[in-house]
Amino acid sequence: MARYDFASDNVAGAMPEVIAAIVAANAGTASGYGTDHVSAMAADRIRALLDADAEVRFTASGTAANAFALTCLAQPHEAVLAHEHAHICTDETGAPGFFGQGVGLIGLPGASGKIALPGLELALNEPDVSYRQPAAALSLTNATEYGTVYSADDLAALIAPAKAKGYGVHLDGARLANAVAAGFDIRRVAQIGVDILVIGGTKAGSTPTEAVVFLNKDLARRLDARLKHAGQLVSKGRFLSAPWLGLLGEGADGGPWAARAAHANAMAQKLAGLMPFPLRHPVEANGLFVDMDDAALERLRERGWFVYRFLDGTARFMCSWATTPELVEELGEALKAVA
Known about the structure:
The protein is an alpha/beta fold. The chain is built from 14 helices and ten strands. A seven-stranded mixed β-sheet has the order 1-7-6-5-4-2-3, sandwiched between helices. Helix 7 links the parallel strand 4 and strand 5.
């Protein structure tokens, strides 16, 4: 039987704090469609985490959260700039275009998942023409698909020229917890010009839930009607918001959401120290991307360990909140044996 412990950070179950919060939210009755007291408390905790005012809603998947957010930033005849290997470009099956009734995506180059400023500036300077979807928004990802982490200053340098052109800005934070644990200052997100932030819960150790944070409240007009139209306004909304009470705790320091991400990052560093194969990208969050030929990867799979071949041809190893040092050491021995 294949072992998926390092295949992704969404293979682990939910952390105990999340389950406890869901059980607590299950007691009694509550109003529907996100108007309940649990959703209000969860939104307050997210605003405290960001130290910013915002409209907050919850969806069951990152794809839905990203695609819905982008429909608020670009019209059907327009497009969104993003890294060529961003999740919205490679792993969402055209969902932004489906939700946005034709919204396009323009992929940009950059090492290790980070958009290169010269490539962005080139795209921003493209003339508007009638036969091509003009860009209207910029989408960024932190931590990136290759496990690298932008600093707030890095993001600000990319956002500033996009804002100068009047573009909206979306930040995909499916692994934002890991970026925060690596030193990213989450309280600067609102200050550097992000309009809509998606904060990942699922990969951080929750049951399915993502928070969609409208930092630019001008974009939140008729927000619930838009969510309902998109099929994303669920009736028992407290079961999407309750996990955040467990994830964030009662303080404003990120609670288990950040602490468990720090553990996942530490496990990735431990695995990097045991890895006999070359690393393609810096290990800054909870993932390793390894140069491993097909024969070695097959030998590893024959030993029961499953990992994916990633977009750039590397073998991807992901650590989660539930990864233990013992698991890392066991995998390290298997890797040593197949090298």
